[in-house]
Write a structure and sequence with these properties.
Blueprint (H helix, E strand, L loop, with lengths): L1 H20 L20 H7 L3 H10 L15 H8 L53 E3 L2 E14 L11 E14 L5 E14 L6 E15 L2 E13 L15 E15 L2 E15 L9 E12 L5 E14 L12 E14 L3 E14 L7 E15 L2 E12 L9 E15 L2 E14 L5 E14 L4 E14 L6 E13 L1
Antiparallel strand pairs: 1-2, 2-3, 2-19, 3-4, 4-5, 5-6, 6-7, 7-8, 8-9, 9-10, 10-11, 11-12, 12-13, 13-14, 14-15, 15-16, 16-17, 17-18, 18-19
């Protein structure tokens, strides 16, 4: 029985084998071996890129197991795809080289232009009409004039600015005029600012103040310019000042200034030679004896421009203070001579950051040997920062050496500092806040004075020419002299007219 099964299996293998393992001439072909007719298998056709015609001819020439010829196989979608690809399968098509870009007329490849795209967040929602409420001014020939006047009324908790002062109402008028030249070369700017404060139902004396300044520049030649300055200031003596004699009116202080400087640029270096004159006088019922003086000063500054926006410098100066009276009421000769040395940096980053900061030492030697020299460190400068066109922050500082009438003292050193921030909420709404601090120390005297101020205001413009303003102010004086300190709060509101 087992033998019969074996024999049956041999017969079946012999019957099936020629259809799958033999060629037309009866040779046995092993799986994976090349066809004996020299053709390629379907997989090899796909790999080596045989054309459809070659594949069809090979298929047509292959006889079946029984010796008859089979008809060619029909075209398929794959055959059409191969035909579109030129007879090569997509997977093995030759890689084409990257073609260069467009060429110039001489055949060289054109250089690709660099394109820079900068994304900036909008600074505000003002659009293109951000100056819709700014005054245009009045053109007068080659000058532009911008006049304005502010009128307000309000009240103060201490209108007298006195230790025992009382509250009261006041009105205030502030006229101003800015004049700017519109020249291609040279320049001239004039700023005039006045203020008059009148007190209603009060014996307090009305307070007038004025400040005027004119600055000019003459462009002599490339790298050389002449700078000119002049000014006048009118202010009243502080009510609780240690300089004021009891029982006298507050003195009006007049200050005249003038200066000229020649500035020369030599490559990265800049040299400035400057001379200045200051005249100060006092008008009061005590005659102002011993306080009127003339101060002359000459200085030399040398700077090196690290970059167009940054220039460190050093500066030295010599000065002389000549009092009108050779001796004061106590017999002291208060005229003096002195010098100052300082180093600083000038900053000019267009509208983003500008300023001039300096620190140093100043010494003033009285001509009377009984008085000690007046000297100390100095800090001066201004710095304006605009993080955006909506916000401006300004920092100021100054150091002043001044004469005095206090017995046994050569004078005082006063340090002042201020911080002002301006913020535009809308095109026509502006907020302003300011803080101030000053400290005065009298040499060889226990007298010291601290003064603090704070202001906050809002300005609402109706158009270019009319605006409403409201303001709050605070001021206090802390003096080491008993009965000289005071504190005052004030509020005021009004209207501004400008052109």
């Amino acid at each position: 029985m087992r033998g019969c099964l074996v024999a049956l299996a041999v017969v079946l293998v012999a019957a099936v084998g020629p259809a799958h393992g033999q060629t037309a001439n009866g040779d046995v072909q092993l799986r994976g071996s090349a066809p004996t007719d020299g053709g390629f298998s379907d997989d090899e056709d796909a790999l080596f890129g045989a054309t459809d015609d070659q594949t069809a001819d090979s298929d047509a020439a292959t006889p079946a197991a029984d010796g008859t010829r089979t008809p060619p196989r029909p075209r398929s979608a794959e055959d059409a795809r191969r035909e579109r690809l030129g007879g090569r399968p997509e997977a093995v098509r030759a890689v084409q080289p990257v073609q260069p870009g467009p060429r110039n007329a001489d055949g060289t490849v054109m250089e690709r232009a660099e394109t820079t795209v900068t994304a900036e967040a909008p600074e505000d929602n003002f659009g293109d009409d951000k100056d819709a409420y700014e005054p245009l001014g009045i053109r007068a020939g080659s000058f532009i004039l911008k006049p304005s006047i502010e009128t307000t009324g309000g009240g103060s908790t201490n209108v007298d600015q006195d230790h025992n002062g009382k509250s009261g109402a006041f009105y205030r008028i502030r006229p101003s005029l800015d004049v700017q030249s519109d020249w291609s070369r040279h320049s001239l700017n004039v700023n005039l600012n006045g203020e008059y404060t009148g007190y209603i139902d009060s014996a307090t004396e009305d307070t007038p103040t004025f400040e005027g300044e004119a600055t000019g520049r003459i462009d002599v030649r490339d790298g050389t310019k002449l700078e000119l300055e002049s000014g006048y200031q009118l202010e009243q003596e502080e009510a609780e000042s240690a300089e004021r004699k009891k029982g006298t009116d507050r003195a009006d202080i007049h200050t005249l200034t003038g200066a000229a400087a020649i500035v020369q640029d030599v490559r990265r270096f800049q040299v400035r030679l400057r001379g200045s004159v200051e005249r100060q006088s006092y008008d009061s019922n005590d005659g102002g004896t011993g306080r009127d003086y003339t101060l002359t000063e000459i200085s030399l500054r040398t700077g090196y421009k690290v970059s167009p926006a940054l220039m460190p410098y050093v500066e030295g100066s010599m000065f002389q203070r000549q009092l009108d009276d050779e001796r004061d009421a106590d017999g002291y000769r208060r005229s003096s001579d002195g010098y100052s040395l300082r180093g600083g940096v000038a900053i000019d980053m267009a509208s983003k950051l500008t300023g001039d900061l300096a620190a140093g030492w100043r010494r003033e030697e009285p001509r009377d040997g009984r008085l000690k020299a007046l000297e100390g460190p100095t800090v001066d400068g201004t710095l304006t920062w605009s993080p955006s066109r909506l916000t401006t922050i300004a920092l100021t500082g100054s150091t002043t050496l001044d004469t005095t009438t206090l017995t046994g003292s050569a004078g005082s050193i006063e340090y002042k500092g201020g911080l002002t921030a301006t913020r535009s909420l809308r095109r026509n709404v502006k907020l302003v806040g300011a803080l101030g601090l000053s400290y005065r120390d009298y040499e060889s005297s226990p007298v010291t004075e601290w003064r603090r101020t704070a202001d906050a205001s809002v300005e609402w413009s109706f158009n270019r020419n009319v605006a409403a303003v409201a303001r709050y102010g605070y001021e206090d004086l802390d003096s080491s002299e008993r009965g000289n300190d005071y504190r005052a709060h004030s509020i005021e509101a009004g209207v501004i007219l400008r052109h």
